[in-house]
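worker-03 picked up job from queue 'complexes'. Input manifest follows; two sequence lines, order preserved.
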Amino acid sequence: MSVILKTEKLRVEFKSSEFRQAVKIAVQGLDLEVNAGEVFGFLGPNGAGKTTTMNVLLGFVPPTSGTASLFGIDVRQPIARQRIGYLPELTYYYKFLTADELLRFYAKIFGLTRAETDQRIPDLLKLVELEHAAKRPIKSYSKGMQQRVGLAQALINNPDLLVLDEPTSGLDPLGRMKVREIIQRLKNEGKTVFFSSHELGEVETVCDRVAIVHQGELKTVGSVADVSAGSANLEQAFLKIVGAQSQPLP
Amino acid sequence: MNKIFALAGVVIKELYRRKDFYVLFVLTALLTVAAGAVNFFHDDKIIRYVKDICLLLIWVSALVIAIVTTARQIPAEREARTIFPLLAKPVSRGQVIAGKFLGCWLATGVALLVFYFFFAIITGSREHIWPWAVYFQAAWMQWFMLAIVIALVVLGSIYFAAPSSTSTISFIVVVGILGIGSHLKIIALQQPEPMQFILTVIYFVMPHLEWFDLRDFVVYDQSLVSWPALIVATVYAAVWTGIFLLLAWLGFRRKNLTT
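worker-03 finished. Artifact:
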């Protein structure tokens, strides 16, 4: 099975702006491999280093040491992102553009031909149920509609790897169901999905494997069944691994 | 190159969908029309003053459009966080810088074209002469001067997070260069050392935006600048633009962008 996403001894430090302040180590010695065709959940409490790792994988932050690669290409090369789709946690799109214009813009960035773009955009708008609003500016969309535009843009290049950052955060139950459907559909198509989430029930439902990071270090990685072994469910296993125990309410 | 054009296209779309752009545009056009239509004291030579005022308006408006528009590009991308879905695609930070520059420069070029067209119609209707080549040279030189200004503002916007800071500092620098650039060497000679040395160095290392100002040619003698000189000035502008964009890229590529 080919490795799609790989980090080796990944370390990320942030220098403090304050004089003589120690550097903050966000990620240390992270070794991770995600195989083709699997749905991989990247878990950890807030401040564990998940977002920093994703930022390195997407080229927003350079690693201090170690390596990170997508499809065998160093993430510092823009071409490493040619076959990925990225859905951020919140909607960050040009609000003065319409959904159709936004998708056309991103299609050009991916180097899609006009014919490919013309074929792909109606399909995506149908998938995310935005055909009726395609020619309206994004600023007139509801939050759920904006999130669906996000999904469409993440799929514009028919990616082999989809990187999702808290994909269901802030979505209503229908939106969550849609995201789960899309993840499942991509999995059936043999695509790889790498996502971070705090919704452990959801992770348990859709993921083949999970990794749990805490304080910048990888604590465990394996199938959902392996990681949950010895605990009632993934949530209990997660709490045990990060050293927190659920307390009964007084 | 397609990616750079795609980025520039978004900049232009944003511009023509913003109301402030139209306000400035219409205001300049109206003032140009009004100034051109007035006949002070029934003096035939008054047209020169009218032309001077119109060209000054065009210069100020073009500078405002160029600086204000460019100053908000990258900070707005960072503030609205649209930079993240963009950079998560196969586009380099250098291409983002180039696309932003190109979009602002092309948009300013279109504005200049309309301004000069208005100017030509108004003054032509009064003087009954149409020195298109002179107008072309003046607009061309101004457009390339604006290329240097836009590249300088792109560079500033990498280091100053607030568009207002970038705009203000850029205005001061540009107006300073336009105002005293040509006199700086003379001022330097009148100063004691080490100020003389410092001002002389500044004179030689700063971009001479004032060299691109052909307003006097348009207003007074209506003669053409030699075409080789125009080409040299164009190359000079391209070199300065390249230097500023390179510095902007070097600064931007090192920036940590955290979601």
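worker-03 released lock.
The first strand of chain A starts at residue 3 and ends at 14.
The helical segments of chain A are 50-57, 99-109, 114-127, 143-154, 173-188, 200-206, 224-228, 234-241.
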